[in-house]
Protein: L-lactate dehydrogenase complex protein LldF
Amino acid sequence: MAADGGMHAEHGPRFAERAPDALNNPQLRRNFRRAMDGLMAKRAAQFPDPAYWAELRERGAAVKARALAKLPDLLERLESRLTANGVQVHWAETTEEANAIVLGILQQAGARTVIKGKSMVSEEMHLNAHLERHGIEAVESDLGEYIIQLAGETPSHIVMPCIHKNKDEISDLFAEKIPGLERTGDVDELTAAARRVLRERFANADAGISGVNFAVAETGTLVLIENEGNGRLSTTLPPLHIAVTGIEKVVEYLDDIPPLLALLPRSATGQPITTYVNMISGPRKAGEKDGPTAVHLVLLDAGRSRVYQDVELADTLRCIRCAACMNHCPVYTRVGGHTYNAIYPGPIGKILTPQLQGLDAAGDQPHASTLCNACAEVCPVKIPIPDLLVRLRREAVRPTETPATHLPPLYSTVVKDGGAERSWTESLVWAGWRLVYTRPLLYRMVTRALAWGGNWVPADAPLMRDWTKARAKPRFKPRTLHDLARERGYLNEVPK
Ligand code: SF4
Structure:
């Protein structure tokens, strides 16, 4: 875990080193292309009226912005409301603390088996591995999560974790991992096989663990949406329910939920509403026939407070994890989620991961973008992702000892490991460029010399090689645009 308690740095090659493998994998690219095209079409069909879409996302953004503006107060209100409802609330500053809290609750209850609903925060915590190390078995119950757990993989998408796999790959996996199952390409049979295994797990689990989509401060209600019923079973069948969530999931009023529910499933899967909307307000009461007898909520910070301190970057915390940004991202749709080597892939990951992990571990991520703005156009809570990417690129190369004097006073320099990507070679090149660019005569002399000399540099020279691998070497013309413009009388005022 990161020393300051942010999520674990995912080790291994960086994005640029991993991308060629994904780009050269036609099966992976076909899987993603097909899936993303389908999701984009379904989402577009849900928002046929641009005026309605604009109004709805304005409301969604306003709800989340208001909640963030009052975040410390709302978290306290949430805690007191939940406590009054009988839910035990725990605060975790780091993922390590969150793991320890969950483990402690399970051990106190004597739990040996856990059934889990989908939760990206639990991925952030690497919770399953932590529990396994302490002799507790956690089984994922979301079908996609169950598949990747069987495969020993991590999610490649925050809503559809096994979107990188096709039916044949899943058939092979099930035949190998589910005892007694013959290989079948029939999707219904595959689903039924998973259901048989999971039903038995639901019935016998000592505890259920889930994530949270929204936590309502006004009423102390945990809102959890899903399509498979596994979330409801995980949170109602076992005698103990533990919910884990980031502190940014709090909203103020119950009335804030409808606009968010109108945006989230539509943006995520192109559904007007999910099959299940669970609202959990406490443990089973006397006389009730079902539900857990104990409910806990673990509120995780893990770097979010640091993000919150910066007025510009705090917009990141508005995210409702719909994944529309990744479904529409020309980079994500070509390389898939594993290429990012991070818990949160795609555009949201490119702004969230460097802030949670730090720019030393993930300073390359903001560069894995064309800044085409597709993500910002579809984001239901209007997060200006490209602006934040540019800001993080700047933070990554800023001299660490220099305060952000170019930014308004409210901006802070809280990004972890700011300046981590700064290289002295690059700094020297830019210092040289500034020297030349601010002296017109020197600029003209240098650019003419470079143009002349550049044509003599071979295409496979070390500095050229990366560029010419996929492109022709540019040829400088002997005469500049200014020369031509002047000759035609357009720029008579420009000095020679
Ligand atoms: S950044 Fe916006 S589009 Fe992306 S997951 Fe979050 S809410 Fe959805």
User: Anything to note?
Assistant: The chain has 23 helices and ten strands. The two ends are 60 Å apart (CA to CA).
